[in-house]
Structures are given as structure tokens and as C-alpha cells.
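C-alpha cells in:
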């Protein structure tokens, strides 16, 4: 018995608002109902549950429920009757059936990654508050047309399914800004890729971990080159499992196809001869003065990044940061790559205003020769850029002499965030706009 479960059963958790309970559970502990008047977040991930009780609605204040890595084969219908439930996570179960009745009316964030879902209910279109939908790693061959009514949907993950095409209504959703659909029949192959030298695993000596994401870990390492001595590098080793964004193998291909750019961390080589066949990339080690521009969204912000309350930008910072990200996004779309996760938390920057765009975990290849698709996907990502620009502008300091520059940037932001997808500017037009302000 876990310590938390023991405390729950002895009623020592009275008044708690969040409960994280991982104890090999096969049945829902009825003692949780003792917390009904205060419990808002319930995390039952990593157990062996197959169902929830019919009276689960007694948790009348519950806003967030995680039941990932359990044994559910169906999304429980009782969830649909929970009055305050906004966020549901059932990643890595064995879910095959998603009843329409299981979707609560106030749902904002639904995570069904890595299950066995072949179809979605038409009732998904009634989820008018839905902003974030994670469906990667399933067996979907289509999306219900009723989803065209999900006009508040901003982030959608569809990677590693069986979709033959992207429906036109999806690419016209007015607020969709972050889309991933790699690993489907409708995606393209890379139009080009960097040729990198092989780096034998035995020539790398790992030091400290620099970071970790869903798709892998990044370490500082020493690379012993023939006759050249040791060089300090960064090495990203990819995991093999599907993530919420997609497949790590697709991320690696996107990194290689993105090419060289002043706002992309330079690649040095590909890891070969790993003892278990694990894939990896060797990158230049950048100055530690570079830091993440922001943190990822929270439960409350859902789709918007979290910035330090003290962070402020000069007008020069705003133009440099926005210009750098727009320039690299322009190159990606010329190469038929949708980044899919164009966010400040994926941007490293230094106080001088230079930046790098990273994390290609949600990147998707498309056919740039398909003019209709290319136009829509680029304008979709332009909306993500508009959100990024808006966040910079919200934290900028302006002098009276810079009022014209400020107005010009706010106009650009408005154009990028327009609800009519086809009327948004291209990244080429965005870059030209920003160049005129330098």
C-alpha cells in the first residue's frame, strides 16, 4: 500500500484539492469521495484500472482528471456528466471506443494519445470550448465532419494515425495554430535533407544532462575526432515510443531536412553504432547564456506560454526575436515542413536578442507543390507566429518615439491572428514587414 493511499484511508487528506495516487490500483478507492467538496485535480495514472464507478459525478468540483497508463478499453461515459470537468487525460491505455456521452460540455483539453481508437464520435463537434486535442498514436482513418464546429480548437495532434488526407474544414478552423500529423499516409517524404557525417557511439563521452523532452534527452558530451582532439558538443538521443506530438523518427528527419539557418542550432553529425540501435544527433554546443524564452502552457492557460513576470523586451528585442523566428519559419515552409509547435518555450534566446528555434517533435512534411495545402498550412502556422508576436508585444517597453513601430507591429499581429485563414500573410510577407522596421 502506498503512503498516499494509507493517508487517504485514514482520512488524513481532508481538504486537499489535488490527489496523485499510484498504487497498482485495480479498483477505484471509494475513500476518494470523502474529498468531494474540495478535490479539483485527480491523477490516477500508472495503475491497472479498467473502469470508474457510476457515481463518479459525486466529485462535483473535479476540473482535471488523469488516468493515463491504465487498462481502460473505453472512455468512461460517466465523465460526460461531471459538471466542472475541463481536462481529461487517458494516454497509453487500450481505448478502442469513445462514446459521445463521455464528453463533458465544458471540456477544454482532451488527451487520448497512444490508444487503439479507430473513430471519434460526432458529439465531439458539440465541445464548443475545446482548445487542445491530443490524438497521436491511434488508428484513425477520418475525423468527424461535425468537428468543423470546434471553432475554439487551437492545438491538434494527429500524428501516427491512418489518415489519407487532411479535411478542408480542418484547415479552415479560425483558431487552429499548432497542428501535427506526421506518420500518416497523407504526409510527404522530405524534399531534401542535410548530409551529416556519422559519429561512432564510441567516440562520444557523455557529461551532464542539458535537458529532456517527450522524444529524448540532450546531453553535453565530448566528441573525440580522429586527430582533432576532443570537442564539446550537445547530443540528443531519441526515444522510440510515440509521444503526444508524434514519432521521434519523424522529428529526426525534420531536423535533418530543415537545413542550415542562423536561427537553427547547427547539426554536426548522426550517432551510429549505438549498442541498442538508438538514434541520435550531434549538435553544436551553444553558449549557456541562451535560455528558454518562456515556459510551456499550464493547466490554466491551456494553449498559451508562461513568461517570467519580470521579463521585459526592448523594441529592438521584439523585432529581432520576431524576425528571427519568421525567417526560419519561412525556410521551413519553402522545404515543405510544418513546425507544428511554434512556441516561445521552444525558443532559446540571449539578452542581445538572437534566438534559436528548436524542438521539431511536432514537425510534419507536406507537399509544397500542392498549392492549396501549402497555402493553408503556412497560414495556420502564421497564426502561431501571431500568438508569439502578441506575447512579445505584451511585454515590451516603448518610448514615445517608437509609437509608429509599435502600431506597425500591432497591425502585423492582427493580420496574423485573423479568423479567415486564407487572408493571413505568408511568412515571406511577415519577414518583409519586419525588415522595414529594422
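Residues out:
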Amino acid at each position: 500500500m502506498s503512503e498516499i493511499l494509507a493517508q487517504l484511508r485514514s482520512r488524513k487528506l481532508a481538504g486537499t484539492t489535488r490527489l496523485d495516487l499510484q498504487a497498482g490500483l485495480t479498483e477505484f478507492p471509494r475513500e476518494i469521495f470523502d474529498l468531494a467538496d474540495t478535490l479539483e485535480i485527480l491523477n490516477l495514472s500508472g495503475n491497472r484500472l479498467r473502469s470508474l464507478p457510476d457515481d463518479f459525478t459525486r466529485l462535483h468540483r473535479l476540473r482535471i482528471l488523469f488516468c493515463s497508463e491504465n487498462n481502460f478499453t473505453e472512455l468512461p461515459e460517466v465523465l460526460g456528466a461531471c459538471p466542472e470537468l475541463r481536462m481529461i487525460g487517458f494516454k497509453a491505455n487500450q481505448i478502442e471506443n469513445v462514446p459521445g456521452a463521455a464528453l463533458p460540455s465544458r471540456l477544454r483539453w482532451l488527451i487520448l494519445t497512444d490508444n487503439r481508437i479507430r473513430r471519434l464520435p460526432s458529439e465531439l463537434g458539440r465541445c464548443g470550448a475545446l482548445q487542445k486535442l491530443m490524438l497521436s498514436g491511434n488508428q484513425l482513418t477520418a475525423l468527424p465532419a461535425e468537428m468543423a464546429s470546434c471553432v475554439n480548437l487551437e492545438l491538434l495532434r494527429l500524428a501516427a494515425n491512418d489518415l489519407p488526407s487532411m479535411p478542408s474544414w480542418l484547415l479552415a478552423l479560425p483558431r487552429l495554430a499548432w497542428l501535427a500529423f506526421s506518420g500518416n499516409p497523407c504526409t510527404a517524404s522530405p524534399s531534401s535533407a542535410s548530409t551529416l557525417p556519422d559519429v561512432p557511439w564510441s567516440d562520444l563521452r557523455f557529461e551532464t544532462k542539458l535537458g529532456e523532452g517527450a522524444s529524448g534527452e540532450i546531453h553535453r558530451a565530448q566528441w573525440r575526432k580522429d586527430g582533432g582532439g576532443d570537442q564539446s558538443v550537445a547530443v540528443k538521443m531519441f526515444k522510440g515510443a510515440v509521444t503526444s506530438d508524434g514519432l521521434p523518427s519523424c522529428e529526426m528527419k525534420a531536423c535533418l531536412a530543415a537545413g542550415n539557418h542562423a536561427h537553427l542550432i547547427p547539426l554536426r553529425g548522426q550517432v551510429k553504432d549505438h549498442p541498442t540501435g538508438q538514434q541520435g544527433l550531434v549538435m553544436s554546443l551553444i553558449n549557456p547564456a541562451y535560455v528558454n524564452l518562456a515556459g510551456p502552457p499550464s493547466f490554466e492557460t491551456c494553449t498559451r506560454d508562461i513568461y517570467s513576470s519580470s521579463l521585459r523586451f526592448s523594441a529592438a528585442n521584439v523585432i529581432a526575436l520576431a524576425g528571427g523566428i519568421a525567417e526560419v519559419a519561412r525556410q521551413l515552409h519553402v522545404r515543405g515542413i510544418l513546425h507544428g509547435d511554434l512556441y516561445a518555450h521552444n525558443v532559446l534566446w540571449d539578452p542581445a536578442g538572437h534566438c534559436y528555434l528548436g524542438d521539431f517533435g511536432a514537425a510534419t512534411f507536406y507537399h509544397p507543390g500542392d498549392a492549396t495545402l501549402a497555402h493553408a498550412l503556412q497560414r495556420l502556422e502564421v497564426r502561431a507566429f501571431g500568438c508569439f508576436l502578441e506575447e512579445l508585444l505584451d511585454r515590451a517597453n516603448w518610448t514615445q518615439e517608437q509609437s509608429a513601430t509599435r502600431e506597425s507591429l500591432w497591425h502585423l499581429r492582427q493580420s496574423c491572428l485573423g479568423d479567415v485563414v486564407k487572408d493571413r500573410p505568408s511568412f515571406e510577407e511577415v519577414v518583409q514587414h519586419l525588415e522595414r522596421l529594422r
